[in-house]
């Protein structure tokens, strides 16, 4: 009976571990940034919940969930299965909007609300702004290099055609 239970427990253990990011992804630049964004968004959410600036609690929560979704999508390679989405562009827009939103609500939390939790939320929000801004800068560079390399849908396998230097008016 022990032989029957071992494969089931192994399968369930394998299913649980397949949901976790791989070591290669976690140590990559993108993995490190996404994990930092998830942690900072969550800490900022908790700080806003505990502060008098609780009106701003929705923005860190949404950014936390979006970063957590993309961490899961990139680490399990779901992004490679769904080709209908342009994942880098979606990630770029998420990072741009998050950095702007975190910067604005952090300024308001630090300047308008006097309690310590609001100040901490503002501080973590500024750090999250840096993480999201660094991420969108790196994504922008990757997208620009991709477009420079001719990745805009054109085939690069065809040899370039030589220019036609013949002039029909010459003799």
From TrEMBL:
Residues 151-171 are annotated as: Disordered. The keyword Transmembrane helix applies. One of its GO terms (cellular component) is membrane. It is a multi-pass membrane protein. Residues 25-144 form the MARVEL domain. It is found in: Membrane. The keyword RNA-binding does not apply. The chain crosses the membrane at residues 38-71, 92-114, 120-140. Keywords: Membrane, Transmembrane, Transmembrane helix. It comes from the Eukaryota. Its main location: membrane. InterPro entries: Marvel, MARVEL-CKLF_proteins. This is MARVEL domain-containing protein. It comes from Alosa alosa.
